[in-house]
């Protein structure tokens, strides 16, 4: 393979830098002196072959070849569907061992420990093998995602990870050229860092979310700089420091020409100024829009018309910026499968200290995905983004459920005018058929099946519409979004000025989804064995023996697969074969009982405790009688982001 002259010189420069870094020249001189001293006669000359043999014998050549690792195929690119593991690095210096394309520009980010995590000041040192709470650092930069190794929670957590971020510029069609300093200065995407705490039970908590401005490295000497990053808390604690990370940034290959720090600072200041002006103008417009909305009807003041929402850092952002068309690649095949994926992500309301109602916190997508759980607004924003990615006309609806509880769900508008509501927390879909309040009382009206009571506004990444119909009751609403007498729109241009990709530097970019790292078969077996043990212990405490029927356990599999298929597609299939197999397996004069249940977590002990709270399940587990045979089957269905649906079925057969 022939290289163009500029690439060849670049490659030579890289090899020279690597040899200098390993001090290969010094080691060769030492071996040369040693060989001449020990092995040669006074009048004998040292040949090149003799020197190479000596170098090979002492392992120098092997060391060099191990260090020089280049990618074999520069055309093949890594798909953004699985989180990249941190690059190994030498604590003393920089890159140690990784596949690097010498024609691309990289930013090497090292996390060199943390300090002042005062909440963990009294935390004892974990003993070897002891399960303890851990910190994990998740990063996203320009469609690349990384995750650090978990480290034990401590006042000074031992973070020592390196992340190799490729800096590229797809938009100008020069993705094959190595980005220079000026080009990189115009790339305003920050590095989004999210710190997650995982407790000993596997429960995750969002500790901090930070946007790192990396371009200061462009004005640093040799393209290397060290930073101290103070992480602030989230939600109500967004003004409180939770800890400090020591970070080192390095450009690779090193920059031929660095910019002056003044140029870098000027560029960043101009961007901040431009963003602030756009946000100010949008705020002025939003206030004017709201005044006009209230002039239509004063009672509109009590409607849930949500124009701005606070993110995890307490920053007010337009709601339209939380939604964007999101493609799942090959990880999800259909809109209904996407709805199922969002449904199996955990639901948890934003934590609040003390009483006084609901704490508002709309998470950025990376924080939601890394924590693997969030509030109804987080679920609705993600589902709407995925449905937009599938080419549907989707909107997030903000309104209330029964008893006036605020809620968010998703709506799609069909080309034939069909309005479908999608409940992101359950995956259920409802067709909306409006009731006509002017119909005579005797006329039969459609009874709504959905749980929604009122609706204040709908929005997506391009549109925001306030409900200005006489009543905000969902059942009487007409969803003709083009009728301005029913829905007051915001200017699409105004929304685009602050919510379009790249419109402002304050918008966090959307990360790609990652493939699951869970092995479904292994996890299913592990949970099943743990449940067998728990059932046997529970029956032993009651003075009962336990006999397991393996064949019956296996026969429960089709039922669990059928239940998950129905949740995903709303189509029931395979029930006849399951019933026929059970009838054949259960002898005459015996009774069969089965109890299926569904979870979105993988904690067997917690699942077993929940099952025992059901009288029907307890009756199966604690079954007494003649010839009692027990069965349990677990089936884990994996989804992106290591989310999973866990189906468990307990069954027993006994003499009637």
Automatic annotation (TrEMBL):
<dbReference type="Pfam" id="PF24656">
    <property type="entry name" value="CEPT76_peptidase"/>
</dbReference>
<dbReference type="InterPro" id="IPR038765">
    <property type="entry name" value="Papain-like_cys_pep_sf"/>
</dbReference>
<keyword id="KW-0206">Cytoskeleton</keyword>
<dbReference type="Pfam" id="PF24654">
    <property type="entry name" value="CEP76_N"/>
</dbReference>
<feature type="domain" description="Centrosomal protein of 76 kDa C-terminal">
    <location>
        <begin position="517"/>
        <end position="654"/>
    </location>
</feature>
<dbReference type="InterPro" id="IPR052299">
    <property type="entry name" value="CEP76"/>
</dbReference>
<dbReference type="GO" id="GO:0046599">
    <property type="term" value="P:regulation of centriole replication"/>
</dbReference>
<dbReference type="InterPro" id="IPR056290">
    <property type="entry name" value="CEPT76/DRC7_peptidase-like_dom"/>
</dbReference>
<feature type="domain" description="CEP76/DRC7 peptidase-like">
    <location>
        <begin position="360"/>
        <end position="490"/>
    </location>
</feature>
<protein>
    <recommendedName>
        <fullName>Centrosomal protein of 76 kDa</fullName>
    </recommendedName>
</protein>
<comment type="subunit">
    <text>Interacts with CCP110 and CEP97.</text>
</comment>
<dbReference type="InterPro" id="IPR056288">
    <property type="entry name" value="CEP76_C"/>
</dbReference>
<dbReference type="InterPro" id="IPR056289">
    <property type="entry name" value="CEP76_N"/>
</dbReference>
<dbReference type="GO" id="GO:0005814">
    <property type="term" value="C:centriole"/>
</dbReference>
<keyword id="KW-0963">Cytoplasm</keyword>
<feature type="domain" description="CEP76 N-terminal">
    <location>
        <begin position="10"/>
        <end position="68"/>
    </location>
</feature>
<feature type="domain" description="CEP76 C2">
    <location>
        <begin position="99"/>
        <end position="256"/>
    </location>
</feature>
<dbReference type="Pfam" id="PF15627">
    <property type="entry name" value="CEP76-C2"/>
</dbReference>
<dbReference type="InterPro" id="IPR028926">
    <property type="entry name" value="CEP76-C2"/>
</dbReference>
<dbReference type="Pfam" id="PF24652">
    <property type="entry name" value="CEP76_C"/>
</dbReference>
<comment type="function">
    <text>Centrosomal protein involved in regulation of centriole duplication. Required to limit centriole duplication to once per cell cycle by preventing centriole reduplication.</text>
</comment>
<comment type="similarity">
    <text>Belongs to the CEP76 family.</text>
</comment>
